[in-house]
């Protein structure tokens, strides 16, 4: 008889994102019209030149393996982009192309993990950050956020232990939409430096800041010698250039040693990133300024037009300062977020993600497996709405959500 699966992976419950994704798919397959506000997939497309470069590469047979670190031309273009747009001093030797930033994050975490090491994540986080940390062998330590879901230095310090090795920063944040100020970034970096931690900066939503310019965490250490730098930055083509299905990202490592380690990890994981997709990436970087500005405008218009009714209905405190998501407070419905999301899908055909999916608190055993888990209680009143979707859908979905809260509050459950 086969013994029960004891792997770390086997101990990780499937995320609420996946559950709602499946429920929405089942509704749609059953013929129901579903307003999809649960996934961060944009309603707009990449520039024509991006598809053209992909097709051209395929047609001319440029479809062999590239090196594990990616095409030199793409890496050079990205080093230039990081210098001029992000203020980051990278180098081709320290920049790796990855099949999506999700895979880049996973490989980076595998490169940094050491037995018993802890990683600091915010209590309200993108579930993939938690899953990947566990899979890489980190013990996740979740620190409570301050008012407005902002990081609070004292709480982070209090959560840290002598085993802490990495602090993960995600600004603009998924799911909260919080954009860190330069002052907050400086303080977080100073803390990490003082405590000997490395920093992972996930900047997937770098082009979606609506109140102020995006500031890259690694820009604060561009004048330091490479050997003293601690920030590894992760970027994606998915959001800025609407290339979610192409699967293309990149990681700018703080130092050459970590870059070399990650090359070994990537050789084992992927061998390389799709060659035609990297050619599409070269076209995207060349046309980046226009594309990113146009895409930001589309999402900002969605935010400014469709989300204010949520504020008027008392379900949202303020418009998100960045990213693609709003955390909506459905306490007034009297329903737990998970039940709310399922009923909203059933009754109104609108898919949103329950907040507890972003606030799992695992109890991890000595071998890195989840023994048990619960959810931060305050997240049971939140649902996440993605506002990167078709404006008509978004407006309809938001109005139906408000209507549903009102019906529940009025006792018409
Ligand atoms: C915070 C954050 N980081 C990274 C990603 C990964 O994007 P991709 O793997 O498409 O590059 C996402 C996707 O939603 C995200 O929300």
Automatic annotation (TrEMBL):
Residues 33-370 form the Aminotransferase class I/classII large domain. GO terms for molecular function: L-aspartate:2-oxoglutarate aminotransferase activity; pyridoxal phosphate binding. Its EC number is 2.6.1.1. Its cofactor is pyridoxal 5'-phosphate. Pfam families: Aminotran_1_2. Keywords: Aminotransferase, Pyridoxal phosphate, Transferase. GO terms for biological process: amino acid metabolic process. Gene3D superfamilies: Type I PLP-dependent aspartate aminotransferase-like (Major domain) (3.40.640.10). SUPFAM superfamilies: PLP-dependent transferases (SSF53383). PANTHER family: AMINOTRANSFERASE (PTHR46383:SF2), ASPARTATE AMINOTRANSFERASE (PTHR46383). Belongs to the class-I pyridoxal-phosphate-dependent aminotransferase family. This is Aspartate aminotransferase.
């Amino acid at each position: 008889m086969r013994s029960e699966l004891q792997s770390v992976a086997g101990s990780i419950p499937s995320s609420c994102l996946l559950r709602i994704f499946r429920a929405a798919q089942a509704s749609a397959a059953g013929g129901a019209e579903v307003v999809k506000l649960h996934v961060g997939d944009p309603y707009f497309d990449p520039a024509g030149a991006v598809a053209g470069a992909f097709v051209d590469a395929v047609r001319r047979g440029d479809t062999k393996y590239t090196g594990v670190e990616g095409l030199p031309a793409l890496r050079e273009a990205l080093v230039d982009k990081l210098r001029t747009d992000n203020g980051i001093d990278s180098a081709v030797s320290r920049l790796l192309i990855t099949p999506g930033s999700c895979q880049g994050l996973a490989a980076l975490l595998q490169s940094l993990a050491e037995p018993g090491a802890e990683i600091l994540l915010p209590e309200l986080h993108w579930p993939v950050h938690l899953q990947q940390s566990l899979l890489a062998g980190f013990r996740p330590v979740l620190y409570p956020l301050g008012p407005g879901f902002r990081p609070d230095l004292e709480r982070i310090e209090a959560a840290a232990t002598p085993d802490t090795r990495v602090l993960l920063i995600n600004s603009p944040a998924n799911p909260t939409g919080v954009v860190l100020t330069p002052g907050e970034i400086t303080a977080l970096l100073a803390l990490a430096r003082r405590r000997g931690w490395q920093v992972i900066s996930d900047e997937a939503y770098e082009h979606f800041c609506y109140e102020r310019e995006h500031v890259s965490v690694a820009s604060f250490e561009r004048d330091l010698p490479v050997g003293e730098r601690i920030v590894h930055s992760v970027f994606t083509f998915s959001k800025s250039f609407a290339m979610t299905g192409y699967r293309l990202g990149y990681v700018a490592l703080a130092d050459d040693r970590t870059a070399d380690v990650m090359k070994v990890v990537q050789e084992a994981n992927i061998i390389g990133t799709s060659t035609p997709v990297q050619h599409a990436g070269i076209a995207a970087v060349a046309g980046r300024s226009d594309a990113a500005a146009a895409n930001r405008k589309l999402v900002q218009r969605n935010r400014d037009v469709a989300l204010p009714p949520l504020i008027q209905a008392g379900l949202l405190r303020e418009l998100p300062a960045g990213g693609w998501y709003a955390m909506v407070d459905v306490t007034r419905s009297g329903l737990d977020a998970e039940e709310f999301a399922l009923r909203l899908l059933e009754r109104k055909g609108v898919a949103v993600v329950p907040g507890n999916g972003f606030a799992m608190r695992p109890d991890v055993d000595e071998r890195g497996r989840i023994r048990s888990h619960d959810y931060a209680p305050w997240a049971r009143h939140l649902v996440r709405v993605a506002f990167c979707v078709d404006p008509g859908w978004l407006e309809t979905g938001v109005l139906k959500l408000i209507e549903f809260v009102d019906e529940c509050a009025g006792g018409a459950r």
